[in-house]
Design goal:
Blueprint: H1 13-21, H2 25-34, E1 45-50, E2 53-59, E3 64-69, H3 78-88, E4 93-98, H4 99-104, H5 106-122
Parallel strand pairs: 3-4
Antiparallel strand pairs: 1-2, 2-3
């Protein structure tokens, strides 16, 4: 069962604001596709604290977090696995996209996200 409010560390709020104000190019490109309910009518927040972490994008309606990772980074490291597990513990699905995927074909990324949303909506766990 999804939780309506996900607790978060209040100390992360200033960092989240700083990240919003200093977004990467890829973050800005994807935000243009998500803002103002452009993606299938769902609301997304930017740089949202969840628990002890900040996710790049989050839809409370879908319980979906979208993470952009540097294509050169090891986003399957121990830290990232713990981070993902902690976020998923709240019932949030995490989708990871690399910056290279966004730069090379933002339309394909958006289509992938639409498919993820359709799968979430078809799941019996979503009210």
């Amino acid at each position: 069962m999804a939780i309506s409010f996900i607790p978060y560390n209040q100390k992360l709020v200033p960092l989240a604001v700083k990240l919003r104000n200093n977004s990467t190019v890829c973050n800005k490109l994807l935000w243009e596709e998500l803002r103002e309910r452009k993606l299938l009518g769902y609301k997304f927040d930017r740089h949202k604290p969840l628990g002890e972490y900040i996710v790049d994008f989050y839809s409370p309606e879908l319980m979906l977090a979208i993470e952009i990772k540097d294509s050169k980074a090891d986003y399957k490291s121990g830290y990232d696995k713990r981070r993902r597990k902690e976020i998923e513990r709240f019932g949030v699905k995490v989708v990871t996209i690399t910056d290279l995927q966004i730069k090379n074909n933002i339309k394909r990324v958006v289509e992938r996200l639409k498919q993820q949303i359709k799968q979430i909506k078809e799941s019996p766990n979503i009210a």
